[in-house]
Predict the structure.
Amino acid sequence: MKNIHFHVTPILLLLAVNINNTFSQVTVKTIKTGIVTSFSADCYYSVSGSNITESGVCWGIKPSPAISNFHLAGQGNSAQMSVLLNSLQANTKYYIRAYAKSGSEVIYGNEINFTTKPQKSNSNGNVKPKSESKETPAPKG
């Protein structure tokens, strides 16, 4: 009677290559932040690949933010997309990374961080309205 041996390793290897090819078709990159204020920040990212149903930026005050935290879908072309994060806390470090949804999978880009500006206040501790926050030059003459 002959012994029959099944070679599972090559089959698993082929499955792993197929799975990796699916993920390698989508590329997500967190590019940079733009204007950062006390309460908002522009965030830029890029995505490429097939079957992308949504892309955007997720953020939080701890590293490795995920879409289960705060996230916002972006606008623009795939070469450079952007989102405007609002309602942030002043003088706070945030971690962001771009994401893309492809089928049932979420692919994340690299992580970057930024710190919002401190909130301006006047001498008695009250927050200055935006219209008063700019200094007016003294008249010449």
